[in-house]
Amino acid sequence: QVQLVESGGGLVQAGGSLRLSCAASGRTAGAFSMGWFRRAPGKGREFVAAITSSGDNTAYADFVKGRFTISRDKANKALYLEMNTLTPEDTAAYYCAADLHFRMLRIGRGAYWGQGTQVTVSS
Fold first, then answer.
1. What does the pLDDT read at residue 10?
2. Residue 87 gets which letter from DSSP?
3. From residue 83, how far is each of 15, 29, 50, 71, 91 by CA, in Å?
4. How far is it, in rounded angstroms, from Cα 112 to Cα 7?
5. What is the per-residue pLDDT across 70-82, written as a single tens digit (0 to 9) for each?
C-alpha cells in the first residue's frame, strides 16, 4: 500500500514558476514508478510526466517539454515537479500517481493516487 500526498500548488502569474511535491509513504514506495497528471476544469485527466523507480528514465507530455522537470528523492520518498514558464492553460488540479510499471503511467493509469493540489495561473 502506498499513500501519496501532494503539496505546493497555488496561484501564480503567467510566466512564473511553481514546484509541486508529492510525499509517498509505505514500505515499498521506493519501488514504484511515479508520475504527475492534471485535470483542467471541464477536461479529462491528462498525463504530464513520469519517472522510473530508479530515476534513470523520464517521460513528458509534449505540451510541457522544456518547461517542466520531474525528479524524485528516493531516500525521502518524495516526487517533485518543477514548473516554469507557466501559462493560464496550465491551470488544473495536479495529481501524483504511483505504479509498479512505468508504462502504465505513460498510458494514464496508476495503482495509487493522491488527492491533488490546485495550480492556478493568472494572465
1. 97
2. -
3. 10, 24, 14, 11, 12
4. 16
5. 999 977 789 999 9
